Amino acid sequence: MVRIYTQIKQGEAWINKYRGCLPIFACVLGFTETGLIPGISAAGSTPEDRKYTACADAEFLYYGPEKKPLYPLPPLTAGASPVLISRAVVEALKIPIYLFNAGLPHSPAVPAIDLGGDAAKCLSGGAAMELSIVHHLFKQGLLWGERLAADTQQGYVILSECVVGGTTTALAILTGLGIDAAGKVNSSHPICNHAQKWAVVQAGLERMRAGVQGCRGEELQSSLPIDPLRLVAAVGDPMQVVVAGMAIAASRSCGVMLAGGTQMLAVYALMSAIAQAYNLAWQPAEVVVGTTRWVAEDATGNTVDLALSLGKTVPCLFATQLSFADSRYPQLQAYERGFVKEGVGAGAACIAANLSHNWQQDQLLAAIESQIERLSQVNSQ
């Protein structure tokens, strides 16, 4: 049920070390106005819907389907929110949940830890966040990474995210760090909108570098060295720097699973750059990336090649082999056609269920379908 795609020996060692351990599940909520660009994301069928996606996912993750939500799960073009997957696992296995508000336009209706951040502006302007806010969020990440690690009891921490438009900010961070990521990232669309993402990223990086150098973007080199925190302030989102800080700090004393695909590969690259720039100690061998096979094997991206492109420290990439091909629900079958793919730590939750309780395909599918059935019953009342 778990396949290792890169760094196989390291991945096997990580699995052997943490098999039988129950993790802590942290989800960092953030927002970027990049997600409001028409067509940029399928995580909400309209830009207005996408303003509330993170709040809706957080509410469902925390309370499950029976509680009437303040923010209902938004309608999707096809498929169902990946939070159904995550909730199925954390509920059944009683995994502790920590929710963090790194920067949202609306306060979530759950007990979330407010980190004092702001929602990011669209990255195309090259000035997404105030640098002071980015530094503050990074310090909060370091602080909470230590606290989460202290609560794991020699286990590991799952660090997940919910940021609509986050694969586009991920592409911006990767490209800004000099990594060849164009055409390799994923999206919630069945066929990744690479050209649209790349145009937005190019615009943002040009404006950022014009501001840094006082020159036009055409004269730039993609490998231009830049302070990684300044890069986040220019073209990133609030989740990225928080999770980078959490993972750096937590890796010093426990295992870390970065829960996601493109977005968490960008966080891993950011961690490495921050640690180098600021001379911070961390343990790369303790940090793995966990996602779904819909991401790892996405024919319209190249996740494995992207992981291998991250430089000297290539992350270990895991993916759950969960399949919805035999599901009785069309909204789950849509995953097999490339819709949604991942989010809210769905892949990592399934990996954790296998490592801690040896859950197989049938158990995962039954638990996830139960969430949909219960949600349907509540909605029909």
Describe this structure as you would to a colleague.
- The protein has 381 residues and is an alpha/beta fold.
- The protein has a single domain (2-370), classed as Nicotinate-nucleotide-dimethylbenzimidazole phosphoribosyltransferase (CobT), large domain (Rossmann fold), CATH 3.40.50.
- The chain is built from 15 helices and eight strands.
- The chain has an eight-stranded mixed sheet with strand order 1-8-7-6-5-2-3-4, with helices on both faces.
- It is globular and about 55 Å long.
- 57% of the residues are buried.
Outline of the structure:
With 381 residues, the protein is of the alpha/beta class. The protein is 45% helix and 11% strand. Strand 6, helix 10 and strand 7 form a beta-alpha-beta unit.
Element string (H = helix, E = strand): EHEHHHEEHEHHHHEHEHHEHHH
Low-confidence stretches: 214-224
CATH superfamily: Nicotinate-nucleotide-dimethylbenzimidazole phosphoribosyltransferase (CobT), large domain
Please work out how many helical segments DSSP would assign: 15
The structural domain count equals 1
CATH top level class name: Alpha Beta
CATH topology: Rossmann fold
The proportion of residues in beta strands is: 5-15%
Helix content: 40-55%
Task: Compute the average pLDDT.
Answer: 94
Spatial shape? globular
* Separation, N- and C-terminal Cα atoms: 36 Å
Based on secondary structure, the structural category is: alpha/beta
How many strands, what sense, and barrel or not for the largest sheet?
Answer: 8 strands, mixed
Strand order of the largest sheet: 1-8-7-6-5-2-3-4
CATH architecture: 3-Layer(aba) Sandwich
Q: How many strand elements?
A: 8
- If you compute it from the alpha carbons, what radius of gyration comes out, rounded to the nearest whole angstrom? 19 Å
